[in-house]
Design a protein that fits this description.
Blueprint (H helix, E strand, L loop, with lengths): L6 H11 L5 H9 L3 H13 L11 H17 L10 H9 L4 E5 L8 E6 L6 E6 L8 E5 L18
Antiparallel strand pairs: 1-2, 2-3, 3-4
Helix pairs in contact: 1-3, 4-5
Length: 160
């Protein structure tokens, strides 16, 4: 599969996959200086994440690529690919949430979404808000360790 990739295609795929790469993998990829080494790296990168070696398909990679396509289709804004958005990043790392609550318009509050993941850390939430008013939902608060936490996130969505 990767044998036909160009240098720029390898770089693009790795950029799209960085969210699930370890810091060591990111550093190793940066140091690769030939197309063949990049192709080999990507082959092993995805092989190491294959969830079922008994099938000819890499289910993990297929699922990730479906999420990537979804993010790009639904979260792209102002010339920025959807996988680079906060919602795209969360979707790619954690998968589809168990529940999404939408708040498209409330009195004096800009639109926001709350995503729930029940199987992570005993249950976590991610709150995304359209602060700019242009459909670019930013992560405002999460209960997930290591993510942005702002208990007063709603103030960023109040109409001035």
């Amino acid at each position: 599969e990767f044998a036909i990739f160009s240098d720029s295609e390898c770089d693009k795929l790795f950029k799209q996959s960085k969210y699930i790469a370890s810091p060591g993998e990111i550093e190793r990829y940066k140091k690769l200086d030939s197309l063949n080494l990049k192709r080999e790296f990507l082959y092993n990168f995805w092989l190491n994440r294959d969830s079922d070696f008994s099938t000819p398909f890499n289910e993990f990679k297929d699922d990730y690529m479906k999420r990537l396509a979804y993010a790009n289709k639904h979260f792209s804004r102002l010339g920025k690919d959807g996988y680079l958005s906060d919602r795209g990043r969360v979707l790619l790392i954690f998968g589809e949430p168990d529940q999404k609550d939408y708040f498209p318009s409330e009195s004096e509050v800009k639109p926001y979404e709350v995503w729930f993941y029940n199987q992570i850390e005993g249950g976590v939430t991610f709150i995304f808000g359209d602060v700019s008013g242009f459909g670019n939902y930013e992560l405002l608060h999460s209960t997930k360790r290591g993510e942005i936490q702002d208990e007063n996130w709603i103030r960023r969505l109040r109409s001035q």
